[in-house]
Amino acid sequence: MSEKPFARVIVDVPQLPSLTYKCPTDVEIRVGDRCIVSLGRREVVGLVVALEDTTDISSDRQKSVQRVFKEVSPLDESWLRFTKFASDYYQHSWGEVALSNLPNFFRSKPGPRYAVSLERLRQLKTVSSKANNEVVLQLNDEQRLAVEMITKATSFVPFVLHGVTGSGKTEVYLRVIESVLSRNPDAQVLLLVPEINLTPQLEARIRSRFPGKRLVCMHSGLSNGDRARAWLAMHEKRAQILVGTRMATFASAPNLALIIIDEEHDLSYKAGDGVRYSARDLLIKRAQMLSIPIVLGSATPSLETWANVRSGRYQLLALHHRAIPTATMPILTVIDPSHEKLTHGLSQKVIQKISETLQRKEQVIVFLNRRGYAPVLTCPSCGWLSSCPHCSTYAVYHKSVGRLMCHHCGWSTPVYAHCPNCGNVDLVPLGTGTQKVEEIFQMLWPQARILRIDRDTTQKKNAAQEAFQAVHDGNVDILIGTQMVAKGHDFKNVSLVVVLNIDSQLASANPKSEERAFANLMQVAGRAGRSGLKAEIIVQSRFGDRAIFEALAKQDYELFADRVLSERREEGTSPYVFQALLLADASTIDKALQFLNDAASVGEALRKQLSADSIIIYDPIPMALMRVADRERAQLLIESTSRVQLNAFLKQWCHVLIGIRSSVHWVVDVDPSDI
């Protein structure tokens, strides 16, 4: 019944190209259909990407497609082109990208109750929306212009909505979505957010604003069934709005008309394993392929995005003022802790300001980007440190559960009763984490209602949502937290932000650490003064004379970003060069480095063969965190001033590396986030 006798099929296997199978004679098969094919002795789910008249495979070796899933419509051509682009750009097989980004239900072999399960997925759960009590403020001139410019776009335009914290970026998003859906009720919108804990608040706000539209969510906090249900609703055009984290990048949305990426600078948009893609970068390409507008929103855009603004490739929409007229920007004070005697690590001014804020019945945020009680436990007698036996890092002391935990491989053990090296029973915690700060604050302000929000306190389902709701409801006086508290939340009664231990980030050797520190400081400072209260941010830092604090005091992102971009242009570093890392891990560091040296030799020969003069291959080095989970890790950096030349080189280079038989595991990271 198929128009052509052969189908090219991709499967989720690394480095495996498309395979050719005979089309079934009893059922029509179309490009984009999911199917079952045999792969060796296994039966796997595949995806049809082309139909062909002929094949070079001899008739005695030809295999047939065993089953075609007709219960769900095929994935459309634009989705296939998008996943093919991603596979080519990030140097992975097409099947690895396309199949691995389908929900489990749609990439697994079906069970006996497949049809029943599918019908259950089609039954969207009813979500009750509270009455919309939100006061919809009138747009100011800057917001109105932003909405007008975005809604006028009828083709691909990358907009950067750069607004100070509290400037009403979310309201702009909502007005633009409203305009798109009123123009075309069948249109679909994708709104990406960086954190799971930001989703419920935003979801509730959108549901109340658009009660007649279907909204679905996709993030790792949902069950496999709920993710599959959301994916299917978008694929079948029964849902109009998708709010999700990075995993929503590859959602099927046949009527996609608008993409919005909130907090576009956030590191969580870059995948850290598997296909190491950037959700932001891929969605910009997806918008270009579909010829639709995309909005990148942030108070602190990434330097890559800002460089595109300055070059004119992206269109800037600036919001210089907070949306609520009475809202104030925070006043910055930097305190050098080395110039005074501290009380439990706190300066006297910090203690005084917190006490005054509590007396006014206002809320305090304490930002410390380090969870646990202390980063390391030590023995003062012999100098023993609580190292992880499987990683080249320390196991963090978690006092509340009495354990040492590695935040990289997950290893943990009960806290030792005595030093395993010399037997001394007086082990001492070094440094400060959120648990220790919580303990100190409970001692200094025993009457205050103190809440700690970090990964340890939000592991249970809905824990983060309930914790943030307690802050919004005014049931918390002091909120202590990591990056989770720094972005996206509109706290009405916060007037003071205290930042501790930012120096570890400012002193880091990572070239992007200053950029990330500034983003953290701007974001967390933006939680204060949003409803008209006088706002302050106090930072304890030994680097108060750095230019980063001058820009922070003025809440002037442009001052900071233009300075750093000027420095990077002179140095010839990212974003003015294009980079890739070849990452290798093995049982020993020597094996990893030897593989990379061999790869570098192959690369040099290929570079000369291609006359790729812009390509620079650096020497391999051990990674900063060399050992993780008993695997020794090294890296090799490749740079080029030409993205096209770099991608062409990587494609051929990876093809050669695939043929090298080795026990070393390797992966290419294109546009790495830590260089």
Describe the structure.
α5 packs parallel to α6 and α18 packs across α19. It contains 19 helices and 28 strands. It starts with 5 loop residues before the first strand and ends in a 5-residue tail after the last strand. With 675 residues, it is of the alpha/beta class. Helix content is 32%, strand content 21%. The protein is globular and about 85 Å long.
Main pleated sheet: 7 strands, parallel
- Share of residues in strands: 15-25%
- Helical content stands at 25-40%
* Helix segment tally: 19
Low-confidence residue ranges: none
E-strand count = 28
Structural class by SSE content = alpha/beta
- In terms of quaternary structure, what is this? single chain
- State the separation between the terminal residues, measured CA to CA: 53 Å
Annotation keywords:
19 helices; 28 strands; 7-stranded parallel sheet; alpha/beta; 6-stranded parallel sheet; globular; 675 residues
Q: What is this structure, in a nutshell?
A:
The protein is of the alpha/beta class and 675 residues long.
Topology:
Blueprint: E1 6-11, E2 19-22, E3 34-39, E4 42-52, E5 67-68, H1 77-90, H2 94-100, H3 104-107, H4 114-122, H5 141-152, E6 158-163, H6 169-183, E7 188-192, H7 199-209, E8 215-218, H8 224-235, E9 241-244, E10 256-262, H9 279-290, E11 294-298, H10 303-311, E12 315-319, E13 331-335, H11 348-359, E14 363-367, E15 376-378, E16 396-398, E17 403-405, E18 412-414, E19 428-430, H12 434-444, E20 450-453, H13 463-472, E21 478-481, E22 494-499, H14 503-506, H15 513-525, E23 536-540, H16 547-553, H17 557-571, E24 578-586, H18 589-610, E25 616-617, E26 621-628, E27 631-640, H19 643-658, E28 665-670
Parallel strand pairs: 6-11, 6-12, 7-9, 7-10, 8-9, 10-11, 13-23, 14-21, 14-22, 20-21, 22-23
Antiparallel strand pairs: 1-2, 1-4, 3-4, 3-5, 15-19, 16-17, 17-18, 24-27, 24-28, 25-27, 26-27
Helix pairs in contact: 1-2, 5-6, 16-17, 18-19
